[in-house]
Every structure is written in structure tokens, then in C-alpha cells.
């Protein structure tokens, strides 16, 4: 499923890119070309990595590149400095609210959709506190690891705002409606082991310095041992699944039937019997199930406007 219609230029090394307010690294660091695991670092430590339109543009561009780059298998997202992300940079703000609402697209939503639509899974290493869009941008990720003594929250109602970044879709599905209602309605900030988060964080570590290494450990294991195609199709089945067990059975059966005929299945079985690591090489963009996407996609493109030079 293409993210955009235009062709995307893929660099030999992501470490050579100069993207505003983020940094992309290979793992291991300094590898001359893209590695199966790449690391995005929110890189405004002097502002606690506060979110900006430029950061949104950079993150969106990065995920569009990862989506089409077969060398990349797993993405790790973290922050520089003490905080993961302090939310939106309120010195910049969201604009003045002028213009038509139908023409507005929230910048956090652009990032979460790029992450969600990327075939490559994301592991978020929240090495410090995060609030607002610093939390909502992580919701489409496959895994979230955080620091036990940091604080996290969805503070929108305390700023006179509603939730964004597609959080109304992701958050209740991740932790249940009751917990999501409490977090959003109170706008409270809590430690990660608070019952309000449920199991949103699958790893909570006592030392902030442990968070990124643990995320990289999981990412490396996924890159070495899981099929990118099987991972992508499985996540899509959960996020974009049908509404009844019977519909799920039919859909899963069709996708499963497709997977049986793929090289990754044969490689997975052979590597198991031969007691070796698998070498999965199937590109999800080229070998997705024939009925993918199986859901009706909403058109999020802006309506075209008439240019000022038109003679109407």
C-alpha cells in the first residue's frame, strides 16, 4: 500500500540525512549502509524534544522511506536527553484556528498514519517522560518500553484540546475504553506502572539508560527471526480486522492460504528443521496478500483549491 504517489529517494546511508529535529542512526552505529534495525531519535533535547511541524515532516518522511526500503526490517524510536517528548512546542502552537476545519489535518495524525501504514514495525524506547503528542505518536507502535520513574500522560483536556494523532482509534483498542476514558478525561500524568495504563508499556525498566538497549535487543531479535511479510500481515489483521469471529475466520483463512505459498514459509520451516536462523527475504510491498488492503480506506487527501491565476 503506497504512502504517497510520488517516487521516494532512498539514501545509501540514513546517517547522512539532515532531517530537522530528528536524527536517524544505523544499528550498529556507523554502518556504511542501512541496517535491518534503524533508530530514529527525537533530537531537540534543549526543548525536551517538544513536537514541531518540522519534526512531524521529518518523521513522516523517514517512515515513508522505511516503508519502501527492503533493507530495513525494524524501526526503534527514542528521544535525546532526559525526556522522550514534552508534547507540542506551545511556543509554536497549532495555528490560529482560522480557515475551514475540513482543510485541517493535525500534524501528529500525519506521523501516526505514516508509522501505522509502514510495513516495518516500530519499537518505542521512552527513555524519559512523555505527554500529549509525545504519547499519542507512539500508539501505532508494536512495542513500547519505558522508564519506571518517568511520568506519562494524555494532557489534552488540561490544555483545552481534544485528543489527536488518531488516538481515539488506537488508545481504547490498546488498553480498553474504561482506562482510556480515565486517562483522557482527567488529563492526568502518571507513572508507567499505574493501573490506568494497563499493559500499554510491555517493558518498564528501573534505569533510563536500560530502555534503549532493551528496545534494540527486541528489535534485533525481530529483525533476525521474524518474517517482515508475516509480521506486517499479522499486524494488519489485528488493526484492520473484521467485526465478527466468522468474518475473522474467513479473512484469516485467505491470508493464511496466501502465506503458505510464499518463500518465507518454506524458509521458516527449513530453518527450524536445520536448527539455524532464517533468512527471510520477501518484501511485504511486493508479496502482500492479494486482497490487501481488505478494508475500505478513507480518503484523507485535501480538496484541491482554485489557483489565484485561474480565470474564473
What's the layout of helices and strands?
Blueprint: E1 22-27, E2 37-42, H1 53-68, E3 74-79, H2 107-117, E4 122-126, E5 130-131, H3 133-136, E6 143-147, E7 152-153, H4 167-175, H5 177-186, E8 189-190, E9 203-205, H6 211-225, H7 228-239, H8 245-260, H9 263-273, H10 284-287
Parallel strand pairs: 2-3, 3-4, 4-6, 5-7, 6-9
Antiparallel strand pairs: 1-2, 7-8
Describe, in plain words, how this protein is organized in 3D.
The protein is an alpha/beta fold and 312 residues long. The protein has 2 domains: 211 residues, 2-enoyl-CoA Hydratase, Chain A, domain 1 (Alpha-Beta Complex), CATH 3.90.226; 61 residues, Lyase 2-enoyl-coa Hydratase, Chain  A, domain 2 (Orthogonal Bundle), CATH 1.10.12. The chain is 35% helix and 12% strand. It has 10 helices and 9 strands. A 6-stranded mixed β-sheet has the order 1-2-3-4-6-9, with helices on both faces. It has a 3-stranded mixed β-sheet with strand order 5-7-8. α4 crosses α5. The longest helix has 16 residues. The protein is globular. The model has no long low-confidence stretch (mean pLDDT 93).
Defining key terms:
about 300 residues, alpha/beta, 2-enoyl-CoA Hydratase, Chain A, domain 1, Lyase 2-enoyl-coa Hydratase, Chain  A, domain 2, 6-stranded mixed β-sheet
Amino acid at each position: 500500500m503506497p504512502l504517497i504517489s510520488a517516487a521516494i529517494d532512498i539514501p545509501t546511508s540514513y546517517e547522512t540525512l539532515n532531517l530537522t529535529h530528528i536524527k536517524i542512526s544505523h544499528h550498529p552505529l556507523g554502518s556504511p549502509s542501512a541496517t535491518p534495525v534503524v533508530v530514529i531519535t527525537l533530537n531537540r533535547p534543549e526543548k525536551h524534544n517538544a513536537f514541531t511541524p518540522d519534526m512531524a515532516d521529518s518523521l513522516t518522511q523517514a517512515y515513508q522511506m522505511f516503508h519502501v526500503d527492503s533493507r530495513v526490517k525494524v524501526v526503534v524510536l527514542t528521544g535525546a536527553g532526559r525526556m522522550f517528548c514534552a508534547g507540542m512546542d506551545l511556543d509554536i502552537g497549532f495555528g490560529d484556528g482560522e480557515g475551514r476545519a475540513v482543510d485541517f489535518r493535525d500534524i501528529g495524525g500525519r506521523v501516526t498514519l505514516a508509522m501505522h501504514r509502514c510495513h516495518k514495525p516500530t519499537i518505542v524506547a521512552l527513555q524519559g517522560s512523555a505527554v500529549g503528542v509525545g504519547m499519542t505518536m507512539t500508539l501505532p507502535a508494536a512495542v513500547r518500553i519505558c522508564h519506571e520513574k518517568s511520568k506519562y500522560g494524555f494532557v489534552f483536556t488540561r490544555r483545552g484540546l481534544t485528543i489527536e494523532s488518531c488516538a481515539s482509534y488506537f488508545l481504547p483498542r490498546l488498553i480498553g475504553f474504561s482506562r482510556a476514558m480515565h486517562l483522557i478525561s482527567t488529563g492526568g500524568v502518571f507513572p508507567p506502572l499505574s493501573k490506568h495504563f494497563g499493559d500499554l508499556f510491555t517493558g518498564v525498566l528501573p534505569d533510563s539508560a536500560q530502555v534503549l538497549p532493551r528496545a534494540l535487543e527486541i528489535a534485533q531479535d525481530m529483525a533476525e527471526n521474524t518474517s517482515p511479510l508475516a509480521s506486517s500481515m499479522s499486524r494488519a489483521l489485528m488493526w484492520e480486522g473484521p467485526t465478527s469471529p466468522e468474518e475473522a475466520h474467513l479473512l484469516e483463512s485467505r491470508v493464511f492460504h496466501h502465506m503458505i505459498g510464499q518463500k518465507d514459509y518454506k524458509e521458516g520451516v527449513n530453518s527450524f528443521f536445520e536448527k539455524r536462523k532464517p533468512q527471510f527475504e520477501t518484501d511485504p510491498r511486493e508479496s502482500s496478500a492479494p486482497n490487501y488492503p481488505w478494508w475500505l480506506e478513507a480518503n484523507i487527501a485535501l480538496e484541491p483549491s482554485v489557483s489565484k491565476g485561474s480565470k474564473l
